[in-house]
Amino acid sequence: MNSNEKTAKVAYTSQRKTAKLAGLLYLITAITGIFGQYVRSTLIVYGDATTTASNIMASESLFRIGFMSDLTMITCFFLVACVLYLVLKPVNKDIALLFVLFTLGSVSVQFINALNQFAALLLLSGADYLIVFGANQLNALVMLFLNLHKYGYIIAQIFFGLWLLPLGYLIYKSDYFPKILGIVVMIACFGHLLEFFQVFLFPGYEVIAYPGLVAAMIGEFSLMFWLLIKGVKVQRTQ
Question: Fewer Cβ neighbours under 10 Å: the N or C end of the chain?
């Protein structure tokens, strides 16, 4: 094996490991995100402020763990984009930077929005400065902030969807992945955007967003599992 072949082999191995790292971070993002959503669905009863407040107070530790799980999800999501940037920047550095910037937009919104979720704990903490509020008023404020968190999460879907468009394009143009994978990732972008528009333009018609949610899940989980199992398919001779 000559020096060029050795260099190519090292580059191939490095790209493959980097892609698998992205897949691992993607998996952590999915697991922590699903767990955070599970905690919210277990404790929050939208439309019933009293029950929601009682659930949170009775399971404060679970609520806190769910909150930390969300922060972990947001952090790992940004790291996924950074690692994929290393994989795909040889294809087109500028477009790779674009999906990192879209991810940064989503992460910024989600981190700030997380304060709305944590506000529920502050309102139910029994702090002295809250004595001016009655129990029903506190419960109503808890529900208000939790609703703000829910809609803030949907707003973040704009960037959470948009980052998939340049990412899918680079996957399609590269020789690292099957072209069909790039196509389904780009379709996933519009799946996320469809949910955003449905929530704010057609509230009460959740059925509109269902096809988009399915498309988004197929696209993102396909990419995640391909990264985990295959990494990249760069030929060593390259």
Answer: N
